[in-house]
Structure formats: structure tokens, C-alpha cells
Write a structure and sequence with these properties.
InterPro entries: Transposase_11. The chain is of the alpha/beta class and 208 residues long. It contains 8 helices and 6 strands; from the N terminus they run αββββαβαβααααα. The protein is globular and about 50 Å long. The protein starts with 5 loop residues before the first helix and ends with a helix.
Length: 208
């Protein structure tokens, strides 16, 4: 997020403190597609301008909010994309946006990331390992099936991981707070910049 977002509020209040075993949760939500863009854009077959963050998917013209929050359901960073963009492809982009102010250099790496089955790619897991970030991300059924056909250490998702995964409810609560604003739940802004401004404001209020 930019310096004008919730991180600035956290800096001024001192409420944004990372402790041992800090963790963040990441997920994606789509605003209601019916109100996005100008009416004439819906039938246009060409791509939307890049500054709109609107794309055509099965639900029509939609936008995705890829968001990461802390363990208290407070937004840390988000990225907007068109509805056709795969969640897993934006995973590292969202986490790269994290900046938690403190003494000295801002912290950018949590101890653990919780995410759903939309994110467990080899690339994402390798990215987390390189940075020393632990992951609680369940595999999809097709990934489990492929892994069973070849040797190698399986992904650990036993009882301890399942218990940790229950903490992912904070991202749903975070999105629920964001979607209380009608203009965010149903996108009326044509440009991504205007829509993002509303998300920044909503996120800032969650930190107050």
C-alpha cells in the first residue's frame, strides 16, 4: 500500500507491531459484476484499458481484489486485477506490497502465510522458502494425486496445520468489513485508481 494508506495510521498509533510467529492471510474477492464500467463496455469484445482493472470472466466483466491482512483482520496490502487473472499469479505481488513500519527498516516478511487452495503452486512455495516464510496452504485434489504418483516428500498438512488453517477466517472478516461499503461491494468506479482509493479509505478506517 502507499504511504497514505493504513500503514501510516499504524505508524502514528503504534498499533502495528509484529511479534514472534507473526502471520498474515491472503485471499481474493470479486465485487458484484453488474455495476462495473460504463454500460457500453459490457458488450465490447476488445480488452479493457489497463488502468481499469476489469476483465471478462464467467460472471461477465469483473474485478478481483487480492488482499492480505494481519492476524487481527486488518488490511496490510492489496492488488487489483481483472476478473480473468488467476489468484496464484498475483500471490507474490501482493506479499511484496507489505510494509510494516517499526524501528529501523520496515518489515516486509511475516513468519507464516495462510492461504486457500487457489494459491498452492510450486513457484509460490519456492518463493516463500527462499524468504524463510512458512506456509499453511492446502493442496488441491489434482496436486495431491500427481504427488502420489512420484517420489518426494509430501506437503505437511496434518492436524497441526489444519488447526492453524482455522485462523484464515480473519481474511473473510476483513473482506466482510470492506464490502460493507456499497461502492466497494458493487464497483461503480470506472478506473482502478478511483476504486482503489475507496479501498484505501475503508482499510484505513479498519485500523482506527
Amino acid at each position: 500500500m502507499s504511504s497514505g494508506g493504513p500503514r501510516s495510521r499504524a505508524r502514528s498509533t503504534g498499533s502495528c507491531r509484529w511479534i514472534h510467529r507473526s502471520r498474515v492471510c491472503i485471499s481474493t474477492v470479486r465485487p458484484c459484476p453488474g455495476a462495473q464500467g460504463a454500460p457500453s463496455n459490457y458488450k465490447r469484445s476488445g480488452p479493457e484499458p489497463c488502468d481499469h482493472a476489469i476483465g471478462r470472466s464467467r460472471g461477465g466483466l469483473t474485478t478481483k481484489i487480492h488482499l492480505v491482512c494481519d492476524g487481527r483482520a486488518r488490511p496490510l496490502a492489496f492488488v487489483l486485477t481483472g476478473g480473468q487473472v488467476a489468484d496464484t499469479s498475483v500471490f507474490t505481488c501482493v506479499l511484496d506490497e507489505i510494509r510494516v513500519p517499526g524501528r529501523g527498516q520496515a518489515r516486509t516478511r511475516p513468519d507464516r502465510v495462510l492461504a486457500d487452495k487457489g494459491y498452492p503452486s510450486k513457484k509460490n512455495r519456492a518463493w516463500l522458502r527462499e524468504r524463510g516464510i512458512k506456509a499453511t496452504i492446502p493442496e488441491r485434489a489434482d496436486q495431491i494425486e500427481k504427488r502420489q504418483k512420484r517420489p518426494g516428500r509430501p506437503i505437511d498438512f496434518g492436524n497441526e496445520q489444519r488447526e492453524r488453517y482455522k485462523g484464515r477466517n480473519v481474511i473473510e472478516r476483513c473482506f466482510n468489513a470492506v464490502k460493507q461499503w456499497r461502492g466497494l461491494a458493487s464497483r461503480f468506479d470506472k478506473t482502478a485508481r478511483s476504486y482503489a482509493a475507496g479501498i484505501y479509505l475503508s482499510a484505513t478506517l479498519q485500523w482506527i
